[in-house]
Amino acid sequence: MKKLLVLALLIASVTFIFAVESDFSDVVGYVKYELYANDFNMIALPMGDTGITTTAELAAAISPDVTSISVWDNETHGWKQYLVSTPGSSFAIEAGDAFLVYMAGASNVDFYCAGTLPTQANYDFIANDYHTVMLPLNRSDLTSTAQLASSIGSGVTSISTWDNATHGWKQYLVSTPGSSFDINIGDGFLIYSTEAYTGWNAPAGRNITTKRATARK
What we know:
The structure is a single chain. By secondary structure, the protein is mostly beta strands. The chain folds into 2 domains: 31-116, no CATH class; 123-200, no CATH class. It is 7% helix and 41% strand. It is built from 2 helices and 14 strands. Strands 1-2-3-8 form a 4-stranded antiparallel β-sheet, with no helix packed on it. Strands 4-7-5-6 form a 4-stranded antiparallel β-sheet, with helices on one face. Strand 2 and strand 3 form a beta hairpin. It is globular and about 40 Å long. The model is unreliable at 1-13, 18-25 and 205-212 (pLDDT under 50).
């Protein structure tokens, strides 16, 4: 019989609860995001086997008040947007993706992303562009944007996330060390890099094909 260890972590606006059995792939649980009404919200899809494979399904899982979901598109160098009012604009998504979600309505909503822990999220970065990236669930060692930038590489010049307190972007500029701020696993970011990187956070010793922070089709 497998020994079950249950861990609970309360981290700011994101809650991550999981159960650990004998193998990394056996981990199950959820990440909770609080989405604010009448504002943008930066979230991610950290868990695997969620049953959510498109932006339309993600919007439906969050709230009927969601009006748009966007990711950065490295092919067009701009936002790729799903408008709920235009069903045909929905596009495919996967575990590890980060999103900018706009939600209307009168009340905040908690979104529980429940599922299994997928293979470590890993990312490709292209030079001189933005990238929507999630802080992987296995990187609790990175607790600030300064540490995240350093971990990726010297080409990272800024890391931003949406701030619901100011209703605008909160930005860390590497050239301004004092602008660094605290972060948590599961957080979503918009990262600018002047250099290309392949497979950041890829599992050591594994031949993993990176598939996020790359061109969206």
